UniProtKB/TrEMBL annotation:
Residue ranges annotated for the Histidine kinase domain, each copy included: 196-432
Highest taxon of the lineage: Bacteria
GO MF annotation terms: phosphoprotein phosphatase activity; phosphorelay sensor kinase activity
Catalytic activity: ATP + protein L-histidine = ADP + protein N-phospho-L-histidine
Name used for this protein in its record: histidine kinase
UniProt-listed Pfam families: HATPase_c, HisKA
Lineage: Bacteria, Bacillati, Cyanobacteriota, Cyanophyceae, Nostocales
Length: 441
């Protein structure tokens, strides 16, 4: 009886152990199911588990090495980089970012609020915008560094920074920083050098022109044509020098001193056209105006006259013979969100010709200095221009843009879908009076 009880107990114990092994195997099979494609199915479960653990450990080491490699690359990159968490706490930044932002108080491994370390509300707002919009954002501003050491303050200079950030997982944000100040300093030094050179060139060019004028009246044909050509080249150089000086002055002082006064737009355009009409008659060109007749804007009359002189002169140069140049004016209204959401009238002027228009490659660069565009658009050679004509130098549209920006306006270059010619759209604020719309030709 005792032996029978012992055998029965042993059988129950063995059965319970076998049941536990079955349950353990089923559990391991469920755990290892995601990795079953990359392992040998013939291996027992425990050796397979050990192999998977070893594989995961190796992958973890490889990922740590890759992360360290990327971190080393960012640390020695010529551009600054910083990363913040969802609460705008600085998690990490490279050496270049520490130098740009003067982060002497931050040490690697510290987690501190970025605004405590860097007194730049522009950077803080940029990070918030990136997190809210979940899109990459770019911002440029003048950064004024601070230092805990009062002795360093006189030596610390402000700099222009450009930051480009992108959203990261878990509310984090990564920001790349670029110090733009060295490039701006080089550009300013270049502009000063060119301006000094232009000032020095004005006197000898004027002297050369006086000598050419004297020779022009003393030489008989056909020799006088060489003097005419010399006069044209000298005039082109004088126009280039004067244009460069004017553009440099405007760019150095974007908020130039304007003599604002009420200006009637249609009368101004008619006056400009009368000045250019001798050039237009050579190609049998006409001008048509449509829109309100009595539009008054608050502007510097001499500067706005220069704007339309350059624009209409370009239209004459590039229009096909016996065509019409259109000037369309209209009043639009916009809501000013900066001043109590008030409604302000704005003048929109569209200058449209029937020439060859702009090439797609030229359009992004039309208002850059010295950009002349597609040579195929020029249908007249230098020899066809009279001495009194306006000679292009690649600065006219750049000056136009700067003058309009100084007035709070803008300009856009396009190709008109109907005429195929150039389409210049000018926006001018400060409309002070207008009457009902009419059409004039």
């Amino acid at each position: 009886m005792f032996l029978l009880g012992f055998i029965l107990g042993l059988a129950v114990g063995i059965g319970f152990w076998i049941w536990q092994q079955v349950q353990l195997n089923r559990y391991l099979e469920r755990v290892l199911q995601p990795y079953s494609k990359s392992t040998d199915l013939a291996l027992p479960l425990l050796p397979r588990l050990r192999q998977e653990i070893k594989t995961l450990q190796q992958q973890r080491q490889d990922l740590q090495k890759s992360l360290q490699t990327y971190q080393d690359l960012l640390d020695f990159a010529p551009m600054g980089y910083l990363q913040v968490d969802e609460e705008n706490q600085l998690l990490w930044c490279n050496q270049q970012a520490r130098e740009i932002l003067y982060l002497q108080r931050w040490q690697p491994g510290q987690v501190r609020l970025l605004l405590e370390l860097v007194r730049s509300y522009e950077l803080d707002r940029l990070i918030e915008q990136i997190r809210d919009r979940q899109k990459p954002q770019t911002k440029e501003w003048l950064f004024h560094p601070s230092s805990d050491n009062p002795a360093e303050l006189p030596t610390i200079k402000s700099m222009t920074l450009r930051a480009s950030g992108l959203p990261l997982p878990n509310g984090q944000v990564g920001v790349f920083l670029e110090n733009r100040q060295p490039l701006l300093d080089v550009n300013q030094e270049r502009d000063r050098s060119f301006s000094d050179l232009a000032h020095e060139l004005r006197t000898p060019l004027t002297s050369i022109r006086l000598v050419a004028e004297t020779l022009q009246h003393r030489l008989e044909p056909p020799l006088n044509r060489w003097v005419d050509r010399l006069m044209q080249e000298v005039d082109r150089l004088i126009s280039l020098v004067q244009g460069w000086l004017e553009l440099t002055q405007i760019e150095a002082n974007p908020k130039m001193q304007l003599h604002l006064e009420p200006v009637e737009v249609r009368s101004l355009i008619v006056s400009v056209w009368e000045t250019l009409e001798p050039l237009a008659q050579r190609q049998h060109l006409s001008l048509s105006y449509s829109g309100p007749e009595d539009i008054w804007i608050k502007a510097d009359q001499a500067r706005i006259y220069q704007v339309f002189l350059n624009l209409l002169d370009n239209s004459i140069k590039y229009s096909s013979p016996s065509t019409n140049i259109q000037v369309e004016a209209k009043i639009t209204f916009f809501e000013d969100h900066h001043q109590d959401n008030s409604i302000h009238p704005t003048l929109e002027l569209n200058l449209i010709d029937s020439g060859t228009g702009f090439s797609e490659a030229d359009l992004p660069h039309i208002f850059e200095r010295f950009y002349r565009g597609d040579k195929a658009r020029t249908h007249s050679s230098l020899a066809d221009n009279s001495i009194g004509s306006i000679v292009g130098n690649g600065l006219g549209l750049a000056i136009v843009r700067q003058i309009l920006l100084a007035h709070g306006g803008s300009i856009k270059a396009m190709n008109h879908p109907q005429t195929g010619g150039a389409w210049m759209q000018v926006i001018l604020p400060e409309v002070v009076a207008n009457s009902q719309s009419q059409d004039y030709s």
